[in-house]
Amino acid sequence: xxxxxxFTAVALGLAACGSSQxxxxxxxxxxxxxxxxxxxxxxxxxxxxxxxxxxxxxxxxQRQQVSYNGPEAPGSIVVDPYxxxxxxxxxxxxxxxxxxxxxxEGTGYSGTATIARKAAWPxxxxxxxxxxxxxxxxxxxxxxxxxxxxxxxxSRALYLYEGGRDTYYRIHGTMDPSSIGKATSAxxxxxxxxxxIDLFSQVSTGTTVHVRSQAESLRYxxxxxxxxxxxxxxxxxxxxxxxxxxxxxxxxxATSQVTDPYAVTTISTPYNAPVTTISPVESAVQ
Length: 286
Fold this sequence. Notes:
Signal peptide: 1-26
Number of helices: 5
Pathway: Cell wall biogenesis; peptidoglycan biosynthesis
Oligomer: single chain
Mean pLDDT: 78
Keywords: Cell shape, Cell wall biogenesis/degradation, Glycosyltransferase, Hydrolase, Peptidoglycan synthesis, Signal, Transferase
Strand content: 25-35%
Active site: 172, 188
Organism: Paracoccus aerius
Radius of gyration: 24 Å
């Protein structure tokens, strides 16, 4: 009888556990700046920009005002492809910092340029070299790709020129928000579409853009390490292994590399020589 009572008590206990209220886990909140929005497309049509998933909004990826210790004047843009951030310098030792994705060509240029052109929902065309070497992938876009959420440049693009010549270095949006904060396989400097729209609205043609070298990045940001997820963080106080990302390899101090952002051709010239291109080569962006 006592055994039956014991079994009954256990059964009632299990039933009580089974009838407990379900636990609801809190859903991470997406900041207003990164929520979905409707933008005006290249032909005046509405384009829906999805919200950025909370999982992609790491502390370093989110747009935020920070202290700035660089020498650049307010109004300048500073790109640090090694720390994977972009600064819009403000007065009073402050800057607005944006997280960026860095493509293979994102470390192919360093120096000071100016924004010579701005485009909302820019079109894009692969270069002749891309079409010739990978026709199965790029021949279908030989006539160009119109602006929109299907376009690799995303919602906005800034085109950098140095000495009146196109550097083929672009700051633009992205179709892949999961790439922000990481080193990716192609492209130059990419931001969340929401962030490039914000940056685009605050700068004009003629704005100075300084792209840091690896040595400058170390001077102002300190050493960085790569996390298992592919992001970078300041090395101080971290127990993670040093980054081995190939795109972070230092460039030769004797040359300045200028690269078409969607091609594999890299042009190296002496620092004191004018920027030239290998013919025939077209801009990846029309």
